[in-house]
């Protein structure tokens, strides 16, 4: 796979004019307030797993509209309040089976993995959280569900789930609420950007090859799915172009990045044909924090830095939490 986008020097200076609605903050304040008013206390119980050196728990918490969302908690067997890493999952994946992801817990963190509503059948070992909301006409996938109205758009529910998970984690008796980091790859990276912008209790963000940024450019130029779902939708609904991109402006990672004031570590693969490097840099270059860095993997695609990048994340996070 050749380089898919601009030269690195241009990417580092790339600051596009991404549309931001005037009521962006009001929209998200209202959205979160409505769901918080319906939230119940989180529930957690022992998970069935042969793993004995770590504690693995089944988590149930209130997300968008008070709807119950599942997750896994994996943590060390020691007392006291520990730092937390919340992880969001890539497109099409689910939380899987308990004990699949052990790195953060084995490194001394409480690791909380959020199931993504309605997903879990695209790869991995499945998901357990339904999305009980319908949609008007949409292409296969999740990108165009409810896209004609910001109130109905699929990612309004997902981003709200992600933020309210932080509320739930802060209530856990073994979590240090002052030391919460968020991370995720691809879709999970995009969700982590939104969560870090919308929840003041997040201390650090580590979006890995983040998806859902600079929708206008990404839909026009990305050669592979999932952004092409929106392209196909608009090829049929020719009269909805302005309406669709107005909806998407409330969910664009660039607009969320402008509101992130906490430390942030990004990653990007310059041969990525699923998430354009320019869309990652559009968000990264918009951050409001001075403590920001980006790891560039020149000859990698959407896999980014793999385990090597996790080692970089672990070292970076240890200095901040």
TrEMBL record:
One of its GO terms (molecular function) is cephalosporin-C deacetylase activity. Residues 1-317 form the Acetyl xylan esterase domain. The active site is at residues 186, 272, 302. Its EC number is 3.1.1.41. Residues 121-142 are annotated as: Disordered. Substrate binds at residue 91. It comes from the Bacteria. It is an enzyme of class 3 (hydrolase). One of its GO terms (biological process) is polysaccharide metabolic process. InterPro entries: AB_hydrolase_fold (IPR029058), AXE1_dom (IPR008391), CE7 (IPR039069). Keywords: Hydrolase. It holds the Pfam family AXE1. This is Cephalosporin-C deacetylase. It comes from Microbacterium azadirachtae. The gene is axeA_4.
